[in-house]
Amino acid sequence: MHNRTFLVRGIALLRLAQLLLWPAGIVFGLTAGIENPALATVTIVLQTLWSLIWVTIVLSRNDIPVWSLWADVSINASAAGTAGLACYPWDALSWSNSAVPLAMGSMFSLALLFPARRVVLAWLMLSTGIGAGASVAMFGQHAMVTEYLSTLVMLLVVAALASLVGHRLRALAENAGRAAEALENSLQWRRAAEIQGSERTRQYRTLHDTVLSTLSALARGSLDASDPLVQRRCAADAEYLRSIISSADRSAANRLQGELAALGREQAVLGLRVHHQVADMPATVPEEVVMTIRDASREALNNVLKHSGQSQAWVTGRGDPSGNGGVTVTVTDRGRGFDTGGNYPGLGLSGSIIARMAEIGGSAVVESQTGQGTSVELRWPA
């Protein structure tokens, strides 16, 4: 894209430079071949005005609209005919015809950017215009016919060179684009690997401080395995391990998965068993989103513990199927439920869950019926 913009601006500057040929021709006496100065002046003035409009369009858009190129070819073809008729017959194809250089420039611009079939059509249009301007001279003068054919060959050479240059530049741009894409993919993979490595280290530390600590204490005999508090601690550690194993895919190293697993251990200590199932999560999730979903999920689990009358809950997480990096986490219980027709009870749902998700551009949807349990769906982005 950057290469095309550079090319487009170069074409616009070339057109502006071509407009200086007419004043230069006046200075160096190249206008001596003009028979009808008024017609020649009107032609070059209109051609100059159009060129300025065309350059303005090109520079303002950083691109050359297809319609503007065809308009440019048509106007320059017509101008080549009119300017040729304004010259003496023998000078219709000389530098006295001010429209020919601009016709060459129009041919160059189109051939540089577009496929061969359009180039051929543009060549035919410009050739017709130049031929119309030299038509009077070519009747009965074989030398003018030869000069006209030479002009057509020159126009064709300009088109061929521009096509070759354009093809080469497009190939270079495609190669550069593929290289940039490969580099970006490599950087993303590296960032994901670093994040996964960091998360793995964090999980190792958590395992050291929880599961390994509990097992070591039991092995040393410093904990009584029959103690209800110790049993609850062991159950919490087991639930933490279970939540990690149940999500042993590419999302297992994801920070959000680790936070949800840690929540399960927290709730297990309090007497709530949390079943985890996390799959197809994006490799990376923004830190703010991770923390918000973790806190909203914790509040949802707190509500299960306080209001559902159940000792189990289910937390499921999945990535957006479209692959745009979105996340959906659902906290479900099979407890008492409540009527969602009125206002949500307490501050937990409205303040700690719904409002919290809205702050990061997400949403929280609560579904519940009396006696049918409750489901809280946390979605980011909304």
Instruction: Give the CA-based shape.
Output: rod-shaped
* H/I helix tally: 13
Helix fraction by DSSP (H/I, runs of at least 4): 55-70%
Secondary-structure-based class equals: alpha+beta
Strand content: 5-15%
Low-confidence stretches: 249-253
Cα distance spanning the termini: 32 Å
- What is the makeup of the main sheet? 5 strands, mixed
Describe it.
By secondary structure, the protein is α+β, with helices and mostly antiparallel strands. The chain has two domains: 2-181, no CATH class; 220-380, Histidine kinase-like ATPase, C-terminal domain (Heat Shock Protein 90, 2-Layer Sandwich). 66% of the residues lie in helices and 9% in strands. The protein contains 13 helices and five strands. The chain has helices at residues 2-18, 21-27, 37-61, 66-85, 99-113, 116-133, 135-138, 142-209, 211-220, 228-245, 255-270, 287-308, 346-359; strands at 273-279, 312-319, 327-333, 363-368, 374-380. The chain has a five-stranded mixed sheet with strand order 1-2-3-5-4. The two termini are 32 Å apart. Mean pLDDT is 81; it is low at 249-253.
